[in-house]
Amino acid sequence: MNVYGVIIDAAYPVQSSKGKWICSLKVIDGTTQNIEGDELKKNYDFSVVIIYAHKFEECPIVRQIGDIIRVHRANVKEYKERKQFHVNVNFNASWALFETNPKHALSGDDSQSDSEMRDEQGQDGERGPGQSDYDPYKYSNKNYSLDMSVHKGILKGLRKWAVNYFANHMTIHISSFTTLGVVEQQ
Predict the structure, then answer these.
(1) Domains along the sequence of the chain with CATH
(2) Of 12, 19, 122, 176, which alpha carbon lies 20 to 30 A from 170's?
(3) What is the pLDDT, as a whole number, of residue 177?
(4) What percent of the chain has pLDDT over 70?
(5) pLDDT tops 70 at residue 166
(6) Residue 87, Cβ neighbours under 10 Å: how many?
(7) CA 24/CA 145 separation, integer angstroms
(8) Contacts of 24 (CB under 8 A, 6+ apart)
(9) How far is 38 from 52, CA to CA, in rounded Å?
(10) The three-state (H, E, C) secondary structure of the chain, written as one string
(11) pTM of the complete model beyond 0.85
């Protein structure tokens, strides 16, 4: 089973007392939102993705809130009425991170975003330049496989939903930040 979600909170990986690395992420998608009438409840619902690894490099470092994670072979549990996905990369589970707003993903120009160009990956799974909008920028395994006929549709829909969600629910918009406190070089 593959699960996709938009990341709304990401913790930096920490090492447990037993030497394993643990990273937790809060994720949402259109199915986790509670709607009453025409309004979204203020207490939004989210799921938690907990990733277990032997090495720090096997944990996801999220570039920005709003990125999308895909988990594969996660164990699903419920804790305090909240869904949790436990991803143990040491036992055949995996994850992949995707940008919500890559260069051409939301432009509607499928000819550019559907290009399947792939460059060589770095050893840490970090994406190199020139890859398609449907390739992950970081992933847990040395290799990954995606059924593009299914993956593209899911990713397009989730990206569109995420952009709309953040546009309508951001408390502080980025345009409200000013250069106060920043000394300009002359």
Answers:
(1) 2-169 (2.40.50.140)
(2) 12
(3) 45
(4) 67
(5) yes
(6) 24
(7) 24
(8) 11, 48, 49, 50, 51
(9) 39
(10) CEEEEEEEEECCCEECCCCCEEEEEEEECCCCCCEECCEECCCCCCEEEEEEECCHHHCCCCCCCCCEEEEECCEEEEECCEEEEEEEHHHCCEEEEECCCCCCCCCCCHHHHCCCCCCCCCCCCCCCCCCCCCCCCEECCCCCCCCHHHHHHHHHHHHHHHHHHHHHHCCCCHHHCCCCCCCCCC
(11) no
Average pLDDT over every residue of 55-65:
93
**How far, in Å, CA of 138 to CA of 134, rounded?**
12
To which residue do tokens 């203020």 refer?
42
pLDDT band (50, 70, 90) for residue 131: low
Q: What is the pLDDT of residues 30-46, one digit of tens each?
A: 776 554 444 555 455 89
